[in-house]
Amino acid sequence: MRYFLVVFALFACLTVQADSTPSFAQIDISLDDKQVLPLSNKISFELHSSKPEGLAKSLSNWDNITVKQSNDDTLAISIIGTSKSISKVLDKYSAESFVIDIEEEIVKKFTSAFAQEVRQSSSLQELEHYVHEYITDPTYINGFHIASVVASQRSGDCTEYAVLTTSLARSLDLPSRLVLGTVIIEAKNHVQAIGHAWTEVWFNEEWQIVDAALYGAQDIQRFYLPSGYLENEGPGYVMSLYTVMTRMPQKISNLRSFK
Amino acid sequence: MNIKLFFSTTVVFLMSALLFTNSVSAKTTENTSNYNSKGLTSLDDLPSWFTKSLARERTLKTRSTFKLKEFNVNKKVKGKLKLVDVADGTWYYNIDIGASSPVECYVLSEFDGPANSLYAILDNALTVGIPELNKKPLSSKHNLALGSGVINGTPYLLLDILYVVGEGDQKVSGVLKGLSAETGETLQICMHNEIGYRKTFFSAFESFVEAISEKQIKPEFFDTIMQFTLNDIPVGYSREKFSKDAEGDIQIELESSILIPVDAGSISRVDTESKSWSTPDGALINENVYSIENSALSASLSLSSEEDKWKVDGELQGKEVEYELEYTDWLLSNYGSYLALLALNKSDESSAEYNMWLSDADPSSSLKVSINKVLDNPESNFKMDMGPLEVKFLADDNGVFLNGTMEQGPMKMKLKQLYVKGQPSLP
User: Fold this and answer.
1) Category of B409 on φ-ψ map: left (φ > 0), alpha (ψ -120 to 50) or beta
2) b or e along B165-199 (b: 16 or more beta carbons within 10 Å of the residue's beta carbon)?
3) Contacts of residue A149 in chain B, CB cutoff 8 Å?
4) Residue A124, CA distances (Å) to A38, A85, A201 in order
5) Are B262 and A23 an interchain contact pair (Cβ–Cβ within 8 Å)?
6) Contact at 8 Å (CB) between B242 and B250?
7) Which chain A positions have a beta carbon within 8 Å of B369's beta carbon?
8) Distances (CA, A) of B377 to B382, B383, B393
9) Residue-wise pLDDT tens digits, B100-140
10) Quick one: pLDDT at residue B93?
11) Which of A175, B239, B240, B385 lies in the 20 to 30 Å Cα band around A220?
């Protein structure tokens, strides 16, 4: 009966990186019949999920996102601009953990190289850029690697980019955490939704999104729809991934802009 | 208390000497009822000569003798088999199937697993053998087909790759087909570098594997093989075997091999093996589990009981780990999970709860697993909750899993029984 866990442990980690998209991370998305591109920075849509209550509860931690349950498996969601978390800054967002193992030598080496290169970080874009350049082998084949493995192998997809970004931020004494969810990307002629991972960093007295995987991507705009944090950064992190994955949307429909 | 030892090896032996051809010959059909694959690449945009070549087959009338005394093999197999090379723990054969290129087969006594080793051998052929043969570099590769199934009680994996070598006018395309099957002590991997002959190739592989598997000692009283599909793509299998040891305990072997096409040309591969022991009443005694992900050891963990405490040690993502579970009571074994299902089925209760150690989810704690009866549903008669996961499944009267489904976001995972031998209870 544990068969499911074996596969799920792998595909829970299939997310996105840079310019291409892994097959299983694509989420079916459709525009409202009357909607044409480009979109404004305010969108609404229907989201179909097998765990709508869990997702609605989780989304209440973010400002700029409003949620209403329209029927058993559908949520009516609106996003205005960039989603911002309103949750508290906890000590654990600055701490060493099994996943964010900032005390490992290879991670220290990675972060000290940033300090030498950048000297003083004045913007979070420098973190995005540094991690984006550091990972020289973007690939979807990895499951979910901890920071020391990513720092050593310099490869991975969005989860590895996010793990490394979180480590870098914590090493710089910036509280940070790994977020998993969906990114809605508006390109010139189309809109797509993809399972994704990114980092939230406490900077200038607010949580800000740092997305090294999509750094430099040629999209028009992005909307981040978080499903939750990686709450357990210990050796049981896979169960925490499962928890967030259960809240991922099955489908997004009737996407439209509003004023 | 039983002390059991478990051994793992991570050595892959790679060698390949490939032939390449695009020639077309007459089409006949090989009868291969076990052949099971799903196409991943649309053939609509391919030239007609290519799709025509893809359809060609041969009937294997020739038989030859396959002898391998180290594993007590001496049997006639389909095609004309020739031993080409022997190195430490590896036997390399060619089988003439009447096509321009021979089928190349390996018997490996040390290996990573059916998924990792199959991929490693095909990848080596694609990056070294085929470019050398064609004197052109590999320019692209696409996942053409994936499959899994059972040959005479042995699970297999299938991976076909469409590749292009050279650039511009000098481009040459081909198909590299691969199959792997683990039979007790050895792993068999065959590949064929020629467009078409898919069923002919499978038939030769089937015969090769059967020759080895029929000589394996099979002490298990229960053996079941499940196929995984992810969004209807067959991505692998899981096998569970129960046997009784000299002390009357149950030895449980669980093997899973998975190939996931993560994009058009990349494959993620994972092999996991677990060996555990259970008391006859379903309580876990100890367990050893290891996973190899993309040719690297990702986990190697042991659970044991010491002074009434559960202790975990080993390696996880390259780090040494050592934990003591907070939970100290008895844990349900995989064998016990069948007994639990049977007990629930016979009782008036609607659900039952147990604690299990599921290292894939959280090696540092026990997990509460709840099994619930599902009434009036022809597709599932049980539901299992493991933390946030919910699995609905159909089991027979003996508690044997027949099929199950789990949906998470855009992904639908299904499990289907491909093979079963015996019953999951002591004879």
Assistant:
1) left
2) bbeeeeeebbbbbbbbbbbeebbbbbbbbbbbbbb
3) 317-318
4) 27, 16, 8
5) yes
6) yes
7) 1
8) 9, 11, 10
9) 999 999 999 999 999 999 999 999 999 999 999 999 999 99
10) 98
11) A175
Please state, in angstroms and rounded to a whole number, the distance separating the CA atoms of residues A236 and B312. 13
Tell me the C-alpha distance between B404 and B389, whole Å: 13
Q: Calculate mean pLDDT across residues A119-145.
A: 89
Q: Under the phi-then-psi rule, with left for phi > 0, alpha for psi from -120 to 50, and beta for the rest, what region is A194?
A: beta
Report the SS3 class of residue A136.
coil
- Residue A113: partners with Cβ closer than 8 Å, 6 or more residues away: none
In chain B the first and final C-alpha atoms are separated, in Å, by: 23
Q: How far apart are CA B301 and CA B37, in angstroms?
A: 33
Are B361 and A148 a contacting pair at CB < 8 A?
no
Q: Of A148, A154, A10, which Cα lies nearest the Cα of B271?
A: A10
Is B283 an interface residue toward A (CB < 8 Å)? no
Q: How far apart are CA A199 and CA A210, in angstroms?
A: 5
For A52, the closest chain B residue by CA position comes to: B409
- Residue A85 to residues A124, A169, A179, Cα–Cα distance (Å): 16, 17, 11
Closest Cα partner for A4 from B235, B341, B413? B413
Is it true that the peptide bond before A38 is cis, omega within 30 degrees of 0? yes
Distance CA A99, CA A167 (A): 9
Question: What is the DSSP annotation of A68-116?
Answer: EEEETTEEEEEEEEEEEE-----GGGGS--SSS-TTSHHHHHHHHHHHH
Among chain B residues, CA nearest to A241? B361
Domains of chain A (ranges, CATH numbers): 3-47+87-257 (3.10.620)
Tell me whether residues A8 and B389 touch, CB distance under 8 A.
yes
Cα A167 to Cα A199: distance, rounded to the nearest angstrom:
10
| Distance, CA of B89 to CA of B33 (rounded, Å) | 32
A residues 57..96 contacting B (CB < 8 A): none
Pairing of strands A42-48, B401-408: unpaired
Q: Considering chain A, what percentage of its residues have pLDDT values greater than 90? A: 74
Amino acid code (one letter) for A194: I
Give me the half-sphere count of Cα atoms (radius 13 Å) on the Cβ side of residue A120: 1
Please report which residue ranges of B160-197 form alpha helices under DSSP H: none
- Report, as an integer, the average pLDDT of B233-252: 95
**Residues B358/B368, Cβ–Cβ less than 8 Å:** no
A95-131 pLDDT, tens digit each = 999 999 999 999 999 999 998 887 666 789 999 999 9
| B352 reaches A (C-beta below 8 A) | no
A141, A239, A248 member nearest B262 (Cβ): A141
ipTM of the shown complex: 0.89
CA pair distance A156, A149, nearest whole angstrom: 10
C-beta atoms of A245 and B317 within 8 A: no
Long-range contacts, stretch B338-341, CB < 8 angstroms, 24+ apart: B338/B398, B338/B399, B338/B400, B338/B424, B338/B425, B339/B281, B339/B282, B339/B399, B339/B424, B339/B425, B340/B282, B340/B371, B341/B371, B341/B382, B341/B395, B341/B399
Which tokens go with A212? 């090294």
Q: B38-213 belongs to which CATH class?
A: alpha beta
Q: State the pairing for strand pair B80-87/B73-78.
A: unpaired
> Which residues fall within 8 angstroms of residue B409, CB to CB, at 6 or more apart?
A27, A49, A50, A195, A245, A248, A249, A250
* All residues at 6 or more sequence positions from A108 whose CB lies less than 8 Å from its CB, including other chains: A102, A171
What is the three-class DSSP state of B99? coil
Is A234 at the interface with chain B, CB within 8 A?
yes
Token code pair at residue A59: 């989304």
